[in-house]
Amino acid sequence: MVTSISSPLLKIGEVAAASGLPIKTIRYYEEIGLLAPTVRRSEAGYRLFSDTVLNRLAFIRRVQSLGLSLTEIGEILQVHDQGELPCGEVKVHLETKLEEIRQQIASLKTLETELEGLLSGWQDPLTKTAIVPTICPNIPTQSSH
Distance (Å, rounded) from C-alpha 57 to C-alpha 76? Predict the structure, then answer.
């Protein structure tokens, strides 16, 4: 990574204040390698970040809000850290995420239809004579007995 000698190094509290992220989160991101090229240690062992960390943290927050995991984000950042634009990698991850969401929506629609069907035939209140060896007679269970 090329960092200008004149660019100030930021302490973790300054990074937290500027990024809006808790210090604990920034430490965690560093521990798992997401901030590797932007951080060094002072002689006293304090974390010192280049100002490029703010752009990196903003990117992490944004793609995480789109549903990408920290592992996926790490893969994207590795491509970037090798000097390449990771847009192709980002696109692949977003396409995969979109397909997962579409599958979840389909499953939720199936569940919605099932719940609507159950509720449309709901009998309330049930009499004591309706008590059978089941927990709730309104919920049919598939039993092999």
Answer: 13
Parse the chain into domains and list their residue ranges. 10-110
Q: Is 57 exposed, middle or buried (0-12, 13-18, 19+ CB in 10 A)?
A: buried
pLDDT per position as a tens digit, 75-102 = 999 999 999 999 999 999 999 999 999 9
Which CATH code of 3.40.50.1370, 1.10.287.470, 3.40.1380.10, 1.10.1660.10 fits the domain covering 10-110? 1.10.1660.10
The pTM for the full model equals: 0.75
CA distances from 16 to 7, 33, 91 (A): 18, 17, 29
